[in-house]
């Protein structure tokens, strides 16, 4: 799931990656909104909100939303640099290490949120969560050659519509239709997993507060560690 990249990946591998990482992304995004009133992964909404606030002259709040965008972009940038360096050094487990990094930083954010004053921890938490969502989305995008985007719901919904249209009778030959069905399954699974993660994230935050982010980190560790073991045991 986190070892093979690009054309070496099967549909089932992409599907597993999409389900598990979208579940985490949905939980983090929804729990962050429940806790702080901001979405860490919804860059379309954040940019739209920023433009609205700028038009109304509320520059301070608008800058805050733009900072979330910059954090997301910087997370994707950091992921790209990390993966490129790892590939140049022939680290076959670099994608798993990227997910472990996300898990570690998520645990750090959880601890800081619990020990720091609310005003400081809230801002740090949202910037940090947006950074991590950018990091995760970039890693899943890069390893799958763009087939898996774990937090890009607008793009997934667009692809669903296009693929449904392409599957209309007579629109494509049989081989192409099979490929489209596989993509349709992938996008439906991604959307449903993100949705389920959102519900779990809100319910979890209601019951255990910021510890829900630590649980999300634990799931990422469970995903990444077996992949690293495969690499070190020569399972690539």
Automatic annotation (TrEMBL):
Does the entry feature the keyword Iron, yes or no? Answer: no
One protein family per Pfam: DUF1275
Q: Where are the transmembrane segments?
A: 62-83, 95-117, 123-139, 184-205, 211-228
Q: Which UniProt keywords apply?
A: Membrane, Transmembrane, Transmembrane helix
Answer whether the UniProt record assigns the keyword Membrane to this protein: yes
Q: Matching InterPro entries, A to Z?
A: DUF1275
Domain of life from the UniProt record? Bacteria
What is this protein identified as?
Answer: DUF1275 domain-containing protein
């Amino acid at each position: 799931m986190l070892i093979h990249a690009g054309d070496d990946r099967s549909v089932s591998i992409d599907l597993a990656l999409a389900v598990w990482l979208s579940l985490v992304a949905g939980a983090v995004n929804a729990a962050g909104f429940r806790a702080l009133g901001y979405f860490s992964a919804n860059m379309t909404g954040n940019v739209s909100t920023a433009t609205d606030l700028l038009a109304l002259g509320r520059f301070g709040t608008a800058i805050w939303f733009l900072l979330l965008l910059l954090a997301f972009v910087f997370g994707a940038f950091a992921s790209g640099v990390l993966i490129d360096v790892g590939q140049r050094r022939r680290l076959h487990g670099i994608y798993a290490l990227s997910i472990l990094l996300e898990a570690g930083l998520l645990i750090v954010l959880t601890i800081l949120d619990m020990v720091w004053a609310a005003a400081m921890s809230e801002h740090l938490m949202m910037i940090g969560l947006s950074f991590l969502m950018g990091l995760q989305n970039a890693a899943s995008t890069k390893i799958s050659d763009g087939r898996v985007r774990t937090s890009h719901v607008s793009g997934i919904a667009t692809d669903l519509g296009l693929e449904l249209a392409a599957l209309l009778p007579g629109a494509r030959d049989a081989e192409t239709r099979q490929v489209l069905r596989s993509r349709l399954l992938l996008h439906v699974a991604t959307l449903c997993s993100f949705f389920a993660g959102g519900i779990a994230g809100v319910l979890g935050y209601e019951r255990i507060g910021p510890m829900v982010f630590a649980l999300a980190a634990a799931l990422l560790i469970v995903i990444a560690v077996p992949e690293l073991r495969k690499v070190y045991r020569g399972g690539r």
